[in-house]
Design goal:
CATH class: Alpha Beta
Shape: globular
CATH architecture: 2-Layer Sandwich
Structural class: alpha+beta
Number of strands: 8
Distance between the termini: 55 Å
Strand content: 25-35%
Radius of gyration: 16 Å
CATH topology: TATA-Binding Protein
Largest sheet: 6 strands, antiparallel
């Protein structure tokens, strides 16, 4: 009998996800994360995992072309609505894609944790997050939509 071999997909390869606890409104949180994390997040059209317009979440984007890294700051809670229910303890999600090294994370995480009003920052395993694939897929489509020259 022939052995079955399964291809192990690297769907999340290059992605890192962090949950951020901060009770401030999104524009204030983004200001402090920009200041302490060395980012320059800009707000774009709101983000949603579904087609319903009443469940939109703030979406911020920053690209560091020199380091080949893309950063997405996504509001996880909007009133009673939660973008990713398994991560309902987090107010914001920081999704990073690209050349993310352990050394860089060792410098970034303490800086973010020192930002005013940021209570906690924890790395999340995308392989264990329910709807992790959907988050990545919708985020990629949303990014392409925002980067088109004529929306």
């Amino acid at each position: 009998m022939a052995k079955k071999r399964f291809f192990k997909s690297g769907f999340f390869e290059g992605y890192s996800l962090f949950g951020i606890v901060c009770g401030l409104p999104d524009f204030r949180t983004t200001h402090f994360i920009n200041q302490y994390g060395g980012f320059d997040f800009k707000k774009y059209q709101d983000f949603s995992l579904s087609q319903e317009k009443d469940t939109a979440f703030s979406w911020y984007y920053f690209s560091n072309g020199e380091m080949r890294r893309d950063y997405f700051l996504i509001q996880n809670k909007n009133g009673a609505d939660v973008l990713l229910p398994p991560l309902r303890n987090f107010d914001y999600l920081l999704l990073m894609y690209g050349n993310i090294t352990a050394k860089y994370l060792g410098e970034l995480l303490p800086a973010l944790r020192n930002a005013p009003h940021v209570t906690a920052v924890f790395e999340q395993d995308l392989n264990k997050v329910k709807n992790g694939e959907l988050l990545i897929e919708k985020n990629e489509f949303h990014t392409l939509k925002q980067r088109r020259p004529y929306n």
